[in-house]
Write a structure and sequence with these properties.
Structural class: alpha+beta
């Protein structure tokens, strides 16, 4: 009984993510930012309007280090990005997923989730 309830809650949660902006961190260090469309039983995730971000290469880091101020003690190098569009991220390569949410979206969501007012399930 409990596993059936957990499955239902997981399904409801995944449905609530549809069309939300998601960040997916991959095992190879890449970051995918796009709109969540669906998933499957193998945990593969489909994103639309997706951008891929990569860590800077060692050469770019060396260039940034040589041009930075040694007194600061920090080096800044931008990630490289490219537009991919519709992508499937294999579940076996997903390290972490995060929902991009602005404060205004979080407030409205918390109001709508109040079961005592809106008669939720």
């Amino acid at each position: 009984m409990e596993s059936n309830m957990e499955k239902e809650q997981a399904e409801t949660f995944l449905k609530s993510l549809i069309n939300k902006n998601i960040r997916i961190y991959a095992t190879d260090g890449r970051l995918f930012v796009g709109t969540f469309k669906c998933t499957d039983t193998h945990s593969n995730v489909v994103l639309s309007l997706t951008y891929e971000y990569r860590q800077p290469s060692q050469q770019k880091l060396a260039e940034a280090a040589s041009s930075s101020d040694p007194a600061k003690g920090t080096v800044t190098a931008d990630m490289t990005s490219r537009y991919l569009g519709l992508v499937v991220v294999p579940g076996e390569h997903i390290v972490k997923m995060e929902v991009e949410e602005f404060a205004s979206q979080a407030k409205s969501r918390s109001i709508l989730e109040r079961r005592d007012i809106y008669g939720g399930r």
